[in-house]
Amino acid sequence: MANSEYEYVKREFEFDRRLPASNWIVVRIDGCHFHRFSKIHAFEKPNDENALRLMNACATSMLEKFPDIVFAYGVSDEYSFVFQENTELYQRNERLILSSCSSWFTSFYMMKWKEYFPSKELVQPPKFEAEVLCYPKPKIVCDYLSWRQAECHNRNQYNTCFWMLVKSGEDENKANEILKGTLSKDKNELLFQRFQMNYNNEPAMFRKGSCTYRQKIDITQRIKVNFQ
């Protein structure tokens, strides 16, 4: 289209937003209509360990694909990827960053499905939407991650109580009514009194989410040389 009479189509109607410099970029990928997807594929409730490990595998692949990702945090069907402050990925083009991250994550999820669910057919493709956030200070990035982890705790504790009640015979409306207005300590007490369950003994991946990051390893080897 370059140097043609039609070039105005790109010049006048396509808009690219450049993300601000000297900001940490966070790309949050979130499952779209995943409640329905998990129901169709009969995920375990409240947590399906295989589904969570598949999400973690996708996150690891993201770090391999995009070297500028320095840290990732995931819970349920959501993952947040922190890009280093000075990244020049796609010249910080928001549209290209979002489309590349969401398409790569989704493609890898589908490609690895059989590895984590060998006895289940993928009967409907997953959909992941993405949004980008920009934070000027590391402290704000840390606060963002702390917020997501707090959400993980609140959501998982509620869901654990909810599904234990449902599995014990309560209908879903009744379970929601029982939990309405309860505090964290009330939920812990409910689990212990009714189901002899200590919430703190649940797997950390369920209670706290998952972190994915690179770890530097010293690969220096000592070589003995015989100079005889």
The coarse silhouette is globular
Q: For the largest beta sheet, what order do the strands appear in spatially?
A: 4-1-3-2-5
Number of strands: 5
CATH topology: Alpha-Beta Plaits
CATH class reads: Alpha Beta
Count up the helices.
Answer: 9
Biggest sheet character: 5 strands, antiparallel
Q: Can you give the mean pLDDT?
A: 93
For the record, the count of structural domains works out to: 1
Strand content: 5-15%
Any guess at the CATH architecture? 2-Layer Sandwich
The CATH superfamily is identified as tRNA(His) guanylyltransferase (Thg1)
Integer-rounded radius of gyration: 22 Å
Organism: Aegilops tauschii subsp. strangulata
Function: Adds a GMP to the 5'-end of tRNA(His) after transcription and RNase P cleavage.
GO molecular function, one term: magnesium ion binding
Binding site for GTP: 30-35, 76-77
Structure description:
- With 228 residues, the protein is α+β, with helices and mostly antiparallel strands.
- It has a single domain, classed as Alpha-Beta Plaits.
- Helices cover 47% and strands 14% of the residues.
- The protein contains nine helices and five strands, in the order αβααββααβααααβ.
- A five-stranded antiparallel beta sheet has the order 4-1-3-2-5, with helices on both faces.
- α3 crosses α4 and α6 packs across α7.
- The chain is globular.
- It starts with 7 loop residues before the first helix and ends in a 16-residue tail after the last strand.
